Amino acid sequence: MAFQGYKDLMTALRTVQLRRSIGLVPYEDAVAEMEARVAAIHAGEASELVWFLEHPPLYTAGTSAQAGDLLAPDRFPVFQSGRGGQYTYHGPGQRVIYVMLDLNRHGQDLRAYVQNLEAWMIAALARFGVTGETRCDRIGIWVERPGDGMLPGEDKIGAIGVRVRRWITFHGAAVNVDPDLDHFTGIVPCGVSQHGVTSLTAQGKDVAMTDVDSALKTEFETVFEVNLVDEP
User: Fold this and answer.
1) Taking burial as the number of CB atoms within 10 A of a residue's CB, which of 40, 115, 200, 206 is the most buried?
2) Can you tell me whether residue 212 is helix, strand or coil?
3) How many of the other CB atoms lie within 10 Å of CB of 74?
4) Residues of the chain above pLDDT 70, percent
């Protein structure tokens, strides 16, 4: 009876498709795909989608990016992005998640949506013994770092940058699993120079990307109250 009740609950939950891309997806191709998918969702021609992928090394500039925060403009390709936020890095070893949800169905509250993204990432990190936290004065997920003497610090392990069109979301979040952290030195990540960047590997967690994906999927279903189903 309990098992049947669980199946009934999963059937009742809204179904959202899950895509897992193998290999490195060019940024321009990903943006074009998101644009097309958002239009199709708005037209009622496609399902909502959560997309797990990795990009080749690149920098993106959000709508609040400051030119002076691009420290090495010739190091990697730089793309202007319509998402919120400032400069960020994407590259191998970083799990990028693009989230295309219709907030007409999930509640037209952008702040609540971003808070759900934060709660989702924090819950997924907790599965690997990493305590992620938010800060009221800056976006993203942060991990405390014991410093030398009396100067402890903190590092960013997860980034969030979203865009909404007709209440349909796109762009999304990124979790540093095992990227080359030196690649972040070409920018001031998200405009924050006082703190560093970290990853699951730098936190001493030897975690496969597939394990991270599993945690992200499970916690997304819990936080957003949906049923993620692999694309046919």
Assistant:
1) 200
2) helix
3) 8
4) 90
Query: Mapping DSSP to helix (H, G, I), strand (E, B) and coil, where does residue 193 land?
Result: coil
Contact 88, 187 (CB under 8 A): yes
d(CA 204, CA 206): 6
User: For position 23, what pLDDT does the model report?
Assistant: 96
Q: Which tokens belong to 87?
A: 């400069």
Whats the size of the chain, residue-wise? 232
What token pair was written down for 66? 């400051």
Its pTM stands at 0.90
Annotated catalytic, 190?
yes
Tokens found for residue 175: 């979790």
Encode 181-207: b = buried (16+ Cβ within 10 Å), e = exposed: bebbebbbbbbbeebbbbbbebbebeb
3-state secondary structure of 225: coil
For 203, the 3-state DSSP assignment is coil
Pairing assessment for the beta strands 138-145 and 94-100 based on DSSP bridges: unpaired
DSSP per residue over 3-23, as a string? HHHHHHHHHHSEEEEEEEEEE
Q: What is the DSSP string of 53-97?
A: EE--SEEEE-TT--GGGBS-TTTS-EEE-SSSSSEEEE-TTEEEE
What SS3 state is found at 224? helix
Catalytic residue among 30, 49, 101, 190: 190
Judged by average pLDDT, the poorest of 5-19, 76-90, 134-148, 218-232 is 5-19
